[in-house]
Amino acid sequence: MGEERGPRKIGEYVVRCPVCGRETLRVEEYIYEVPMLGKVIISTGKCTACGYRYSDARLAEARGPSKIVYPVQKPEDLNALVVVSSSATVLVPELGLEARPGPAAQGYITTVEGVLDRFLEALEAACRDPEADREACEKNRRAIEEAKEGRRQFTLVIVDPEGVSAVASEKARREPVSREELERLGYIVAPG
Ligand SMILES: [Zn+2]
User: Fold this and answer.
1) Which helix (H) or strand (E) holds 120?
2) What is the pLDDT of residue 118?
3) For 78, what's the count of Cα atoms within 13 Å in the CB-facing half-sphere?
């Protein structure tokens, strides 16, 4: 018999729904073996009362509070798999992009290009506001499109105080995250 490759179900439980507050959110957890990342846990759930959908993705073994820095220098770099846990903040400093986890944040596994798609969707949603700055919207949209097409180099940065996010590439560096950075991103409240 060969090695087991497919996902394996590791749990199924019912928890309180963050939206309607009832004990009706049914969550299933699966474990995947991902090259260069090791074991990744993917959870999905649906509230049978209000229809709220939950999802999360995280490394099975936490690496401690960390900041992942991944330089995207050529089109192939866009294909690396990325695990963004529900506790992570995603940043692209060169493009001024920042996505912090909200109170009901979702985690996911995607590619670097998929991360840019999410920023593009968020930008398009924000730009549907009639008050939005047309010129800034167009400029930012073009910048993300160029990055997606591999015509613009950038850095993908993921800050995760739980250390369960990752980029599947030898080029990705895992650095300690400073207290100042955690304060700036709202993970901890500055004293005084
Ligand atoms: Zn609900």
Assistant:
1) helix 112-127
2) 95
3) 18
Give the rounded distance of the alpha carbon of 116 from its chain centre: 11
Mean pLDDT by 10 residues, the chain (192 residues): 70 94 96 93 96 95 94 97 96 95 86 97 94 95 97 97 96 94 88 63
CA–centroid distance, residue 26 to ligand 1 (Å): 10
Instruction: Give CATH for domain 1-61.
Output: 2.20.25
Distance 81 CA to ligand 1 centre (A): 31
Closest among 128, 125, 107, 116 to 53, alpha carbons compared: 107
Burial of 57 (C-beta count, 10 Å sphere; 0-12/13-18/19+): buried
62-192 has which fold?
Jelly Rolls (2.60.120)
> If you measure from the C-alpha of residue 102 to the centroid of ligand 1, how many angstroms do you get, rounded to a whole number?
17
Q: 12 C-alpha to center of ligand 1: Å?
A: 17
Ligand 1 midpoint to CA 16 (Å): 8
Domain boundaries, the chain: 1-61, 62-192
Kindly report the number of other CB atoms within 10 A of residue 187's CB atom. Answer: 19
Distance CA 54, CA 103 (A): 12
SS3 86: coil
The Å distance, Cα 107 to ligand 1 centre, comes to 18
- Ligand 1 centre to CA of 15 (Å) is 10
